[in-house]
Structures are given as C-alpha cells and as structure tokens.
Predict the structure.
Amino acid sequence: MSVILENVGIAVRDLEEAIEYFSALGLTALGRDEVSGGWSDEAVDLDGNHAKIALLATPDGLGKLELFEYLHPTAIDTHPTRPNEIGMHRVAFRVDNLDEALGSLADLGHAPLRSVARYRDLYRLCYVTGPSNIIVMLAEEL
C-alpha cells in the first residue's frame, strides 16, 4: 500500500489573515472554494456545514495546507494544545533563514512563544504564534 501525505487541514477564524500569514512564509495559494452540504456534510460528519477554503503549497510543491473558515455552524474558539496534551500540537516548516522568516511574521504581529533554541548542531528552531492560535514551528538546518 502506498501512502502520500496530501495536506494538513487547519480551521481558522479569518481565512484572509491565515493566507497572509502563510504567504509571508513563502506558501502560495493554489486555489479557493466555498463548500457546503451534501458530500461535505458526509466527509466531515457535520450536518449543514458551510466553509470557505483555501489550499496553499510550500515553495517546493511537496507540502500543502488546507485552511478553512466555517461560516456555519459558528466556529468554536479553542486554546492552543499545550506541548504535553494529547492532540494536534503544531505544524512545522524548515526555512533557509530563520531570522528572515521571523521578521516576516513579526511584520504581521506574530512573535515566538519564547526564544530561538538550538537543537544539537542540527537546527535553530522556535515556536511562533499564528492566526487563530495556530502554533507554527520554524526550523533552520545548520
């Protein structure tokens, strides 16, 4: 059996804000749509759902994010998953220049949770706040 990661889906409060954030990291919007009812209700097990969606790709074309903003039912605000909680914790990107990436996100009002850390002699990395309380890890290979 062959398995290929298609995308990671993230619900957001504001689709435009999320697209701006991930575009600042170099992702490109591949397409947008608005989905509701029928197949969409079946797929996500949520009757009467209605959402705006956007698919973004990493510059290498291998990674994709599907962002969705629920119009109905009303989205439920949650807090970010803590590092020791069970559940989806973060999405990670390798960047070629961590300082430049952090600068691009700072221009949008997003800052590291704490500071830049060094993992052995392999990576400089940090966790950054994102739109809708998304946690994003950025790692620069050394």
Observations:
- The chain has two domains: 8-72, 91-141.
- The longest helix spans residues 15-24.
- The chain has a mean pLDDT of 92.
- The domain at 91-141 is CATH 3.10.180.10 (2,3-Dihydroxybiphenyl 1,2-Dioxygenase; domain 1).
